[in-house]
Design goal:
The complex is a heterodimer of chains A (about 325) and B (about 575). Helix content of chain A is about 65%, strand content about 0%. Chain A has about 325 residues and is an all-alpha fold. The termini of chain A are close together. In chain A, strands 1-2 form a two-stranded antiparallel sheet. The longest helix of chain B is centred in the last third of the chain and has 18 residues. Chain B is globular, with a radius of gyration of 26 Å. Chain B has about 575 residues and is an alpha+beta fold. Chain B has 19 helices and 21 strands. Chain B has three domains: about 180 residues, Dipeptide-binding Protein, Domain 1 (Dipeptide-binding Protein, domain 1); about 120 residues, D-Maltodextrin-Binding Protein, domain 2 (3-Layer(aba) Sandwich); about 220 residues, Dipeptide-binding Protein, domain 3 (Roll). Classes of the chains: A mainly alpha (about 325), B alpha+beta (about 575).
């Protein structure tokens, strides 16, 4: 990304600052466990203490007596340990789903009819119906039938008779539409309501909500890639479809992700902060920029408890925006 | 067009800067409640909001006179005459007021008191707390000549007996038991009714009628003798009470303070968040803000505009911030573990952080100024080293990983703390405990919850440690409701009880001799300190902010912190000129 084009920090100081800020966040986030700062320990003698008063709390304390600087570091750590992995997972999931849907459409991917047995077994398992032994037998039969019909279906004459088309495009598009029909924040609030979530559960939730955007983008790009002459040439040369998809189509379909990744990250940072601000799905001992912003409600005069995390959030979002601009093909021409 | 915008802007500015409108005498008084009452069933009042509401709808024999800070006769004509029947039995002679009537015009009679007491002990009704609280009343003797006279025969002696004997809302017999079926069932028989035995047919029918009345949501289904009726209930938002046009106490000449009901309409706004409440107060959306946190109180007092618009009151209260330990949990059964954990709270620091140092630290469940306060005990304080010593004595060992393990255990010592989410006092306390525990290798998980969810979790025993307020009173020492074995799972959330504490808890209110009562109370404080089912951290001051246009404000250290029905709007058109 940075090697392409004529990008230089000297010619673009704002971009340099943005990258520097993101790098700083990354380093602070990774080093946070070793820094001598505790974001949840209250200083009972210095509640809502203003910054730079020689109390040892350089950015002051909030209404509960927690150090604001320690909270900023904890927020950076959360960004590195939660939001970044969530974006990575969502990008991976969205890319695979969108690329597969865009490439194979509704008719091109054919599966042995017996594979339906797998669906039934999965449904049985999902519903947690009784009978583990029975489940194992069913699983065995479904596997055997699938393998058998797979072999039979390799013969062109039997292909139509023993296989059925998997409407992959409709399936992916349906899930994307379903998840997109409810505003992301509302959906997240609904899913996260109840007892505080673990970091893993929150990661899964953020991933679940973030992948459709990537999938939609990659699917659209894949439609364009699929119509390119080199794909037709590869098909004409007799290459297997899976290989064409993986080796030739997918790299081209993924190119917009370089610019979309930072934007996706910015969206998730905002979403996670909104959730933390609302105090949903997270315990009070989990400190992030959003929860720090919320703490100002306990003492509206403690402006520093909101300004510093607010600034950190704003700078991060602007830096990611800048990074997206830098990574876009138009900028690198 | 420009003039239009300029005019609009000026109008907005003028309206924003103008003084709040003067209130009429009939204007509603809006009061902040931190939570919805959840239920208005007079037998099950789970929170202070429900108790406040019940006091408007119903009346008890006695009520709190906030001016004198003592109990005064309400439905009763006078305080009861006390007669000692035997060594452990006291007779309290009551007479009801002649003027007292129900909403339907029927007089309030001794039979209604008899019926109510029986209702408090009927199996199948939500009266578990009442059973423990009023179990000392053994018999109701009706006067054969005067239908308004009766005698309560009580177990024990002392002022608490007298106070507690008149501290429950009286309910109409004719509405719930028109056939008077309960009259033939002695009170003692209901009190001794085994839990496993099915109720008597008359009781079963009454319970069914009571449940069908759905008093929890529809209090209007039951005639009351209180001054107000509920006119609207928007759950978790607002409750409206309208004064009855013809309330029986209006006929009482020179009505005492407990029979005064000045506001024509009372509106209770449910606002769980304190900062939102402060904002609502500044915008004159509420007129009375009780139980104001220290920080908001200080901020409001520092504002000249707020000082001009509101009056501020602060005085010691009887609310204690406590940490309770669930003694039903295996790891908390050993009192040394509870003692160790209590050493991880920092009452002095917490008082400084949350009450600006105005919290009164205490050794037990009695306020420091009380003559029964056991000053031979030391004040609890943060002592992590002592906590570690006690844990070792209890058989816990600190391993190389820094955590505490018991031989053969699969998990290290770890705890969860439940508390109410809306107040910073609880959150700060929980965070301080968590930090202190983390320093000696104990993992603490914080589980804040909304009020009703917290109550449900605590009653279900789903906690290790809780942080909450206990509402106390200087007028009596009835701790049985939250410490006696008969109230485990209901008022007694810690699940703690021993034969000794049960004996003390029943003996204290029954004791008439002040010297012996003092000995019993001091003994109870020693036992509770040793057993440590709960740790009283400090007494909170009560702070009240009211609209200056309100008069007859009677602040009090007793809940709810002021005399609600004494309030009225000032007739003065320019009340803000009188600001201090």
């Amino acid at each position: 990304m940075m090697s392409s084009g004529s990008f230089s920090l000297r010619t673009r100081p704002v971009a340099g600052l943005a990258l520097g800020w993101l790098l700083l966040l990354l380093i602070v986030g990774l080093l946070a466990p070793w820094l001598p700062l505790s974001p949840t320990t209250p200083d009972l003698l210095l509640v809502a203490a203003p910054p730079a008063t020689g109390s040892g709390h350089y950015l002051g304390t909030d209404a509960l007596g927690r150090d604001v600087l320690a909270g900023l570091v904890a927020g950076a750590q959360r960004l590195v340990l939660l939001t970044l992995p969530a974006v990575a997972l969502a990008t991976l999931l969205g890319t695979l789903a969108g690329a597969a849907a865009g490439f194979w459409g509704n008719q091109r991917l054919r599966l042995p009819i017996a594979a339906g047995g797998w669906v039934l077994v999965a449904a049985w398992w999902g519903l947690r119906l009784p009978g583990t032994a029975f489940l194992c037998i069913l699983l065995g039969i479904a596997t055997a039938l699938t393998l058998l019909t797979w072999r039979v279906a390799r013969h062109p004459a039997a292909r139509r008779r023993y296989t059925c088309a998997l409407p992959l495009d409709s399936l992916v598009l349906g899930i994307i539409t379903l998840l997109g029909s409810v505003p992301r924040l509302l959906l997240l609030v609904a899913l996260a309501a109840g007892p505080p979530l673990t970091t893993g559960q929150l990661l899964a939730l953020l991933t679940l909500l973030a992948w459709p955007e990537t999938a939609r983008l990659v699917r659209g790009q894949m439609h364009w890639v699929r119509a390119q002459p080199f794909i037709e040439a590869a098909q004409a040369s007799g290459l297997p479809m899976s290989r064409i998809w993986w080796r030739h189509a997918l790299p081209h379909a993924c190119r917009p992700l370089l610019a979309f990744g930072p934007l996706s990250l910015a969206g998730l940072v905002g979403l996670e902060s909104s959730l933390a601000f609302l105090g949903i799905g997270q315990g009070p001992d989990v400190v992030s920029w959003g929860s720090q912003l919320a703490s100002v409600r306990h003492d509206t005069t403690a402006w520093w408890a909101a300004v510093f995390p607010g600034l950190a959030l704003l700078l991060t979002l602007l830096a990611l925006q800048k990074l997206a601009v830098l990574a876009s093909p138009a900028t690198n021409k | 067009m420009n003039y239009f915008w300029l005019g609009s802007l000026l109008t907005l500015l003028v309206s924003a800067c103008s003084a709040p409108p003067a209130k009429q005498a009939s204007s509603p008084i809006t009061i902040r409640w931190s939570r919805d009452p959840s239920t208005l069933d007079p037998l099950a009042l789970p929170n202070p909001s429900a108790i406040d509401a019940a006091n408007l709808l119903h009346m008890a024999l006695l009520a709190t006179d906030f001016q004198a800070n003592k109990y005064a006769p309400a439905l009763a004509q006078t305080l009861p005459q006390v007669r000692v029947l035997a060594d452990s039995l006291t007779a309290l002679d009551y007479e009801l007021r002649q003027a007292a009537t129900w909403d339907d015009g029927r007089p309030v009679l001794a039979t209604d008191v008899d019926f109510t007491l029986k209702l408090l002990h009927c199996p199948g009704l939500p009266n578990e707390g009442n059973r423990a609280q009023y179990g000392f009343i053994r018999e109701v003797r009706l006067d054969p000549v005067n239908p308004r006279r009766f005698t309560l025969v009580c177990r024990g002696r002392g002022e608490e007996i007298m106070i507690a004997s008149g501290d429950f809302p009286i309910l109409p017999e004719s509405a719930l038991d028109p056939a008077h079926t309960l009259r033939y069932l002695p009170l003692a028989k209901l009190q001794a009714w085994p839990a496993a035995r099915p109720p008597a047919p008359a009781v079963a029918a009454l319970v069914q009628r009571y449940r069908q009345a759905n008093l929890a949501r529809e209090p209007s289904h039951l005639p009351g003798c209180g001054p107000y009726r509920l006119t609207a209930w928007d759950t978790n938002h607002q409750l409206r009470f309208r004064r009855k046009a013809h309330w029986w106490a209006d006929k009482v000449q020179s009505a005492p303070p407990v029979l005064q009901a000045r506001p024509q309409e009372l509106v209770f706004a449910v606002l769980p968040d304190d900062d939102a409440t402060a904002l609502a107060l500044r915008r004159h959306e509420i007129d009375v803000y009780p139980q104001v946190p220290a920080r908001i109180f200080q901020q409001l007092q520092a504002s000249p505009k707020a000082r001009a618009e509101f009056a501020f009151y602060s005085q010691p209260s009887y609310d204690i911030l406590t940490a309770g330990f669930n003694t039903r949990r295996p790891i908390l059964r050993d009192k040394r573990v509870r003692q160790a954990l209590s050493c991880l709270f920092d009452p002095a620091g917490l008082s400084t952080a949350t009450q600006l140092g105005q919290g009164r630290r205490t050794v037990g469940l009695l306020p420091p100024g009380s003559p029964f306060y056991n000053d031979s005990l030391s004040l609890p304080s943060l002592a992590p080293d002592r906590a570690m010593t006690l844990l070792r004595q209890a058989g816990w060992q600190r391993r190389a990983d820094g955590h505490w393990w018991q031989p053969g255990a699969t998990h290290p010592l770890a705890l969860s703390v439940r508390y109410r989410t809306e107040e910073t006092t609880f959150a700060t306390t929980a965070l301080q405990f968590q930090a202190a525990a983390a320093r000696i290798g104990i993992t603490v998980t914080l589980l804040p919850a909304e009020s009703s969810a917290l109550t449900t979790a605590l009653q279900a025993g789903d906690f290790d440690v809780y942080v909450r307020l206990l509402k106390g009173s200087p007028l009596g020492f009835n701790f049985a409701t939250f410490l006696h074995s008969s109230t485990i799972g209901n008022g007694n959330l810690t699940g703690f009880s021993t034969p000794l504490t049960d004996h003390l808890l029943l003996a204290i209110p029954a004791e008439g001799d002040a010297r012996r009562k003092r000995l019993l109370l001091r003994r109870l404080q020693v036992v509770l300190r040793d057993e440590m089912p709960l740790l009283p951290l400090f007494y909170l001051p009560t702070r009240l902010v009211v609209n200056r246009q309100l008069q007859h404000v009677v602040p009090s250290g007793l809940k709810p912190g002021y005399a609600l029905t004494a309030l009225s709007w000032s007739d003065a058109a320019t009340p803000l000129a009188n600001s201090q």
